[in-house]
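Re: Re: token formats

Sure, here are both.
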Amino acid sequence: TPLSDPSITRTFLFPFLAEKVSVYLPNIPEPTCRAELMQYWMNFSLDDKTANKMLWISDGGSKVCRRTEEVCPVLDRPERYEYSPQVLCKEGIWNMRAYWEVEYSGWVVIGATYEGAGRRANSGPSGLGENEESWGLCWSGTCYQIWFNGLNKDIKDVPFCSTIGVYVDQPVGIISFYVVSGEGAEREVKLLHKVKTTIEKKILPGFWMGIQSSCTLAKRAE
């Protein structure tokens, strides 16, 4: 039956209008390979309104880079990260599953944060994984590390990989990080770490950027 398809989308057609409404189906087994993860692919775009002034957004909102301490000439905004060299995506994750991939270079933290987590100097630590409202993964130079609430855990025996995949099942409370290797249709994933928690509010993908680093959100052809 159509309801057995975990990627089901109901399409309602009206004159001059086609609206897609995603349906969250509970009690579906967790993905175990990249092909299964790809059923939940979501094309994200960077929100330049949240980007710290040291970050440069390009390629139609799919790439962020930080060069030095050089500041991008943009207006200050309440939603912009004041001190953390960080940027969020426009699209949030709520009552759904989502998967995305990021190609990166340099020292970066890839993760997700609650939409309402603090971004200004007076709101406490705001970097990914520095508080109770965000999670982050980074390459330390010798191993991967998962960060939460200012504490980190080493993930050993996994070599460096320039592409990271992230899977979120918000209702179940799962955030999984993967390394993505191979080329084209032969690409596969290896689970780095799975966070099991309670995700009580909408979360957004985010990126913390060190000097001379870049992140590019992979796009999947529609």
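Second one below.
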Amino acid sequence: MEAQQIIALVTFAFVSTITPGPNNIMLMASGANVGFRRTIPHVFGIVFGFSLMIVLVGLGLIEVFNRYPLTHNILQVSCIGYLLYLTIRIALSKQEQNQKFDYKPMSFWAAANFQWVNPKAWSMALSAISVYNISDSWQGVIIVSLIFAAINIPAASVWTLVGERCQLLLSSQSNTKYFNYGMAALLLVSTLMMV
């Protein structure tokens, strides 16, 4: 890859990972509800799962969608269904009086697996491989994956830290409830924008 291709890829990776989407909204909600430290497995699960997705798409999974367009429709319906489930789960999380909030952060493996039903992750991976793996080689796939991993860590951390800063606003039960409603609404909007 030439320098200007790498700069273009880094720019695409930064813009696509830092902008709102299901991962970032859920990281913000997790940071707000359980803090940065308890959200670290979620962050690294996203990085691992998405990097693996890029590698597998680059090594041939993209051809499945090209040959069998119905698989793309099935994937899209599955993604939307799971995101709607997560939207409801975030909205219905509640805090009992004088008890800790029942929000459970995603584990490393849950976050890694979530990438496979995340429509934004799919569109990013397919675009990255289609546009930026110009050499059509496995080395190009690895470079694309590593660049995304390197940029995804700070981007995901920013959203988690923003969420953690929101903890100050969430000192009351009603504020926490409304914050989670807001996060659920944002997740719903980001899901509907991908339809």
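The chain has one domain: 3-193. The chain has seven helices and no strands.
- S.
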